[in-house]
Amino acid sequence: MTAPTYVAREAVPGVDTGRILKIGTRGSLLALTQAGTVRDALIATGHQAELVVVRTAGDESAAPVQEIGVGVFTTALRDELFSGAVDIAVHSYKDLPTAPDERFVIAAIPPREDSRDALVARDGLVLGELPAGSKVGTSAPRRAAQLRALGLGLDVVPLRGNLDTRLRKVADGELDAVVVARAGLSRIDRLDAVTEALEPVQMLPAPAQGALAVECRIDDAESIAALALQDDPQSRAAVTAERALLAELEAGCTAPVGAIAEVVESIDESGRIFDELSLRGCAAALDGSDVVKASIVGSPDDAEKLGRDLARELLDLGARELMAVTEPASGGGGAGA
Ligand SMILES: NCc1[nH]cc(CCC(=O)O)c1CC(=O)O
């Protein structure tokens, strides 16, 4: 590594520029791209950094995430971080369990990508153009539940594998469409495949979708200081609200729960412009028979509380009962189908 150490001394006074920060990442193209942005930003602010690929249970198995358990993508990275084999771990934030891990701190949430889900369909079709019975692949119960609830009669089928594999199933004609995170396609430069970005009225994304969690050990002051430069307060507020909603529902990343928060500019009676955090959330029955939705607006400083308040509203609307509904025996159908 030939990092410009003279820049480091100017950019971050007091940093020991002799240390090469090791960034742990999964080996998929998506993960490497994500971790690469963190490495590049560290180098741009005068640090030395390099990637270290860590294999995870999520990479070894093709079974649905609901079966192999939450944390499949993140546990191995955290083990390496705790042992000191790496100094920094870059996770897709939505893959992290909601329970905080006291050994670490999320030192940076970099500016988030568009968090919407994306439809990749044959022949350039949008969702409303897919005929009843179309085979639509998705990895997430949240997406399956919301797709079924649209009442289009789609045949929702499970899907795993890296993004390339998923896209190929549409190209090969095995599936009519797949629904994946738009952010993932953006990061691997495959937005060309998207035939429709799904609006929140059709489908609410996973809490924290499109955001990265950049973790380091709680006592590693040097990494914490270095990563602080990459933190985006608005992304942090949005993700905090979405994750608090998920945590209050006592649900994990495989639950049929969607959320989207945004910091928006508002204006009061005296013409003063201020930031507001707008949060929408939903909980769905896996068979698509019902979805409850609610929204809330407040100060970005109250992100955590807004998320918890909205979760309680969803619980009052019957979220707990909906989340207990199980998958239909046949893949297809759904409300109104
Ligand atoms: N669960 C897998 C996963 N974790 C993060 C992303 C995409 C990037 C992101 O959401 O930040 C994906 C793929 C997908 O959901 O389509």
Chart the SSEs and their pairings.
Layout: H1 5-11, E1 20-25, H2 29-44, E2 48-53, H3 57-60, H4 65-68, H5 75-83, E3 88-92, E4 104-108, E5 117-121, E6 135-138, H6 141-149, E7 155-158, H7 163-171, E8 177-181, H8 182-187, E9 196-197, E10 212-217, H9 221-228, H10 233-248, E11 257-267, E12 273-284, E13 291-298, H11 303-316, H12 319-323
Parallel strand pairs: 1-2, 1-3, 6-7, 6-8
Antiparallel strand pairs: 3-10, 4-10, 5-8, 5-9, 11-12, 12-13
Helix pairs in contact: 10-11
Bound molecules: the ligand NCc1[nH]cc(CCC(=O)O)c1CC(=O)O.
Keywords: Porphyrin biosynthesis, Transferase
Pfam family, one: Porphobil_deam
Modified residues (S-(dipyrrolylmethanemethyl)cysteine): 253
Structure, explained:
With 337 residues, the chain is an alpha/beta fold. It folds into three domains: 5-110 and 211-231, Periplasmic binding protein-like II (D-Maltodextrin-Binding Protein, domain 2), CATH 3.40.190; 117-197, D-Maltodextrin-Binding Protein, domain 2 (3-Layer(aba) Sandwich); 236-323, Double Stranded RNA Binding Domain. The chain contains twelve helices and 13 strands. The chain has helices at 5-11, 29-44, 57-60, 65-68, 75-83, 141-149, 163-171, 182-187, 221-228, 233-248, 303-316, 319-323, and strands at 20-25, 48-53, 88-92, 104-108, 117-121, 135-138, 155-158, 177-181, 196-197, 212-217, 257-267, 273-284, 291-298. The strands form three sheets. It has a five-stranded mixed β-sheet, with helices on both faces. A five-stranded mixed β-sheet has the order 7-6-8-5-9, sandwiched between helices. The protein has a three-stranded antiparallel β-sheet with strand order 11-12-13. The longest helix has 16 residues, at 29-44. It is globular, with a radius of gyration of 21 Å. The relative contact order is 0.15. Residues 1-11 and 331-337 have low confidence and may be disordered. The structure holds the ligand NCc1[nH]cc(CCC(=O)O)c1CC(=O)O. The site of ligand PBG has 9 residues, from β8 and α8.
